[in-house]
Automatic annotation (TrEMBL):
Signal peptide: none
Residue stretches spanning the membrane: 20-42, 48-68, 75-96, 102-124, 136-157, 169-193, 205-222
Originating species: Knoellia sinensis KCTC 19936
Keyword field: Membrane, Transmembrane, Transmembrane helix
Top-rank taxon: Bacteria
Protein name (record): Membrane protein
Pfam families linked: BaxI_1
Length: 233
């Protein structure tokens, strides 16, 4: 017994990088799969597509708040969020591609490139996540979330496609800020994963870490869609 190796994170039920990677890939596969469903349905019936868009946006907001403030971690809620998010992303992407041909693959490539770039910058130390950095970025995210809700209401009431700023320089500036904020948020996700592994968080926590990473990636993708569509106009 004494000659056996020491118990590792897997043996003690602690979160590992493999756990996070596998959960992230699983949730991402759900988003892509149901995104394809949302795309096909929206292309066949734009009215149902609009319902998926609006319903998905509201449902992800509600589910996101429940997941964030629920005292116990719920895997079914996280999986359900990925399904609804996929339908929403598919419907939105189909609409943008119809209106501005070519923006979807461009936004997808930009999102992948930004993710890789931010990961490398974080790993080599170009971006250092400190307590102050986390506070500032978190406050900016909350501030932008409030602005996004107000902007959505303004766009619906005034029938303006992008809300404040429209497709002018102000609108493009807002989109650039949103893309930058979503990009920096990836560093927070990377840091949270590393800290969870270092502190020996429970293995089930990997679901929440994967969920947070997917949410940020989708947010970044949506902001790239809006940016490229504004620039196209």
């Amino acid at each position: 017994m004494y000659n056996q190796p020491s118990a590792g994170p897997v043996d003690t039920g602690r979160v590992t990088m493999d756990d996070v990677i596998m959960k992230t890939m699983g949730l991402f596969a759900l988003v892509l799969g149901f995104g394809a469903v949302g795309w096909v349905v929206s292309a066949a019936n734009p009215q149902i597509g609009f319902m998926l868009w609006m319903g998905g946006m509201i449902a992800t907001l509600i589910l996101g708040l429940v997941i964030a403030f629920k005292k116990t971690l719920s895997v079914p809620l996280i999986v359900g969020y990925a399904v609804v998010e996929g339908l929403f992303v598919g419907a939105v992407s189909q609409f943008f591609e119809q209106q501005w041909d070519g923006v979807v693959p461009l936004a997808a490539m930009a999102t992948a490139g930004t993710f890789i770039g931010m990961f490398l910058a974080y790993k080599v130390g170009l971006i250092k996540v400190t307590a102050k950095f986390r506070r500032i970025v978190t406050m900016m995210i909350f501030g932008y979330a409030i602005f996004a809700v107000i902007n959505f209401i303004f766009a619906m009431v005034t029938n303006t496609p992008f809300g404040f700023g429209g497709t002018g320089w102000l609108g493009i500036g807002i989109s650039l800020f949103a893309v930058g904020l979503a990009s920096v948020s990836l560093a927070l996700d990377f840091d949270m994963i590393e800290r969870a592994i270092a502190t020996g968080a429970p293995q089930k926590y990997s679901w929440l870490l994967a969920h947070g990473l997917i949410v940020t990636v989708v947010w970044l993708y949506i902001e790239f869609l809006r940016l490229f569509a504004r620039m196209r106009e």
